[in-house]
Design brief:
There is one protein chain. Strand 6 and strand 7 form a beta hairpin. The protein contains 1 helix and 8 strands.
């Protein structure tokens, strides 16, 4: 009878160890975002702003960008004063909003564009004189 009990105890111990290791793995993966991680599923976006008449005076531009293409998170806003024409490459995770907003310093007419891989126009808009311009699109999943 003793020989039968030892394999059962061994099986119970092995199953217990596997349960602890498996549970620990689940906790670690959830802690570090493993199941929420996008494996490189992001878009290479180019934001552009041009103005008429041309000006060397910096104007306020705000755009969305993801800091890490491998983490599923909403894009954050980058705001800064820049000379126009303005071009910026950014990464936007799949299924998220890409947007740029530019504010003129006077009666300039602003035009914005959002390009995919620097070529395909995803959004384009031209403002009235002295008004903000906004381009927005949602990236495909």
């Amino acid at each position: 009878m003793r020989n039968i009990v030892c394999p059962v105890k061994t099986l119970v111990v092995v199953l217990g160890v596997l349960a602890v290791v498996g549970g620990g793995t689940v906790v670690l993966v959830q802690q570090f975002g493993g199941w929420n991680t996008l494996v490189g599923k992001a878009w290479a976006i180019t934001y552009e702003v041009t103005t008429e008449p041309a000006t060397a005076t910096p104007m306020q531009v705000e755009y969305l960008s993801n800091t890490d293409r491998y983490k599923k998170e909403a894009p954050h806003v980058v705001a800064r004063a820049v000379p126009v024409p303005f071009t910026e490459e950014a990464v936007i995770n799949a299924g998220e909003k890409a947007e740029i907003i530019a504010t003129p310093n006077g009666d300039q007419v602003l035009t914005c564009r959002i390009l995919l891989d620097g070529e395909k126009v995803l959004a384009s808009s031209t403002s009235a004189p002295g008004r903000k311009v906004t381009c927005t699109t949602i990236t495909a999943s």
